[in-house]
Amino acid sequence: MRKINTRNFRVATRSTTRDVNRQIVLNLIREHQPISRAELARRMEVSRSLLTPLVRELVTRGAVVEGGTLRAPQRGRRPTLLRVRTNRHVAVAIDVRQQRTTIALADFGGHVLAREAVPTPGTPTALVEMLAQRVPALTALHVGADAPDGEERTLAGAGLVMPGMVDRRTGRVLYAPRLGWRDVDLRDLLAERLGYKVRIENAPIACALARLWLTPDGLTGGHSFAYVSISDGVGVGLVNRGEVLRGETHTAGEFGHVALDRSGPPCVCGKRGCWEALCGDGATLARYHARGGAPAESVEEVVRRARAGDGAAVETITETATHIGRGLAAMVSAFNPGRIYVGGEITAAWELLDGPIRRALVEDTLTDAARATPVVPDRNPAEYRVLGAVALVAAPTYAAPRVG
Ligand SMILES: [Zn+2]
C-alpha cells in the first residue's frame, strides 16, 4: 500500500481515470481540511470546472461533507469548506495481547464508540471462537440503520493487531513469541466467521500505519519514521517514504529480539538480553520488584507510583528508559529515520524517559544529526494499538490508486 504524496503528484490526464483524480481530491481534502474549493483547485493546479464535478461526486457518495465557512472577511459569498467524513465508516478494532484482548468499535476518525477487554484465549481456535461470539454483539449496537443511537453507520471491516510477525500476503501469524503461536491462520478463519473482510498486522506496523493515515501530525512530520511499540513485547514498524518496510519474508522490524546484551535476562524467544527482555513491560515490573517496590500488577501502576514520588518506581523507569535509548540508538544507526514515535503505557511517564533516551542517543550514535533524531511519545498511550487496528481498515480507503 502506497500513500499518495500530495506534495508531489501529477493530476491524471484523460489517459488515466476519473477514479484517480477523485482519489487525489479525497486525499488533498483529508490532508488540508477544512479546505475551500478554490484552495483545492489551486493546490491541484487545475481549473474549478475540472474540480467541481469530482467534489460533487465525493459529496454525493458521502465521503466528503460541506460545513463551515472561512472566517476571514471576504467580498461576496463566503466559500463553503470541505472535509472528509470520518464518522460514517466504522471498523472493528481488535488488539490481541499476551494477557488480554481488547475489542473496540471506532470510526475512521479514530473515535472509539465502544470497547471491551477480555482475557486472551490460549489457542488460535479459541480466540476466533471468542471473537465470533463477541464482535457481532458489539457491532449490533452501533451499526446499521437500526442502531439504537440513531446514527447511520457502515461497517467497513475488522482490523486485527497481533503481538508477533505476520505475513501480510497470506494473513498468517508467522510467530508470536508471547503467545507461543507459530504459523497460524487467524485472518481467514475470522473473516469466514464474521462474514466480512478482516485485515491482520503486527502491532507496531499497524501503529505506524495509524501515524501515517489517521493522525494529523503523521502528515506533516515526514514520511520516513520508525514506530516503536513497548508493551509486553517490543517491536518496530519502519516507514520509508510513506511505505512500510516489510523485508523479504515479512519479518522486518523484529528489533525487539536483537540481543543487545548476551549476558542479560532470558527472553521469551529463548535467547538472552534481547531489547524486549531489557525494556518490555515484564522487564520493568521485574526491575521494580527487585528494587523493593511494593507488588504491582502493571506498568501503569509503576508509572502512577513514580508520579507520586515512589523512589524505586522513578529509578526503575529511568533505568528502563536507558535501555530503550540504547536500542533506539542502534536503530537510528541502522535505519536513520526522520523521527521515532514511541507507543506504550510506559510513555505516560515521558518526563522520566526523555532525558535518559536522549543521553543514550548522544552516547551511542555517530553524527550530530543522528544524535538529534526527534523521539516523541504517541499521544494516546491507552489507545495506540486500537487506533492501529482501525488504520488497517481505514488506510486502504486513502491508499494511492494504481495507475497504468
Ligand atoms: Zn527475544
> What are the bound molecules?
zinc ion
Number of strands: 16
Class by alpha and beta content: alpha/beta
Q: Work out the radius of gyration.
A: 23 Å
Low-pLDDT segments, ≥5 res: none
Query: What is the number of independent domains?
Result: 3
pLDDT averaged over residues: 87
CATH architecture of the largest domain: 2-Layer Sandwich
Distance between the termini: 16 Å
What general outline do the C-alpha atoms trace? globular
CATH superfamily of the largest domain: ATPase, nucleotide binding domain
Query: Number of helix segments?
Result: 14
| Main β sheet profile | 5 strands, mixed
CATH topology of the largest domain: Nucleotidyltransferase, domain 5
Highest-level CATH class of the largest domain: Alpha Beta
Descriptors:
single chain; 404 residues; alpha/beta; Arc Repressor Mutant, subunit A; Nucleotidyltransferase, domain 5; five-stranded mixed sheet; 14 helices; binds zinc ion
Folded structure, characterized:
With 404 residues, the protein is of the alpha/beta class. The chain folds into 3 domains: 18-84, Winged helix-like DNA-binding domain superfamily/Winged helix DNA-binding domain (Arc Repressor Mutant, subunit A), CATH 1.10.10.10; 89-209 and 386-398, Nucleotidyltransferase, domain 5, CATH 3.30.420.40; 217-378, 2-Layer Sandwich (Nucleotidyltransferase, domain 5). The protein is built from 14 helices and 16 strands. The chain has helices at 18-32, 37-44, 48-61, 124-140, 187-194, 203-213, 216-220, 275-279, 281-290, 299-307, 311-335, 350-364, 368-371, 384-398; strands at 35-36, 64-69, 80-84, 89-96, 100-107, 112-119, 154-162, 165-167, 172-176, 181-185, 198-202, 225-230, 234-240, 243-244, 340-343, 375-377. The strands form 4 sheets. A 5-stranded mixed β-sheet has the order 6-5-4-7-11, sandwiched between helices. A hairpin with a 4-residue loop joins strand 9 and strand 10 (181-185). The radius of gyration is 23 Å and the shape is globular. The protein starts with 17 loop residues before the first helix and ends in a 6-residue tail after the last helix. Zinc ion binds at residues 257, 267, 269, 271, 274, 276-277.
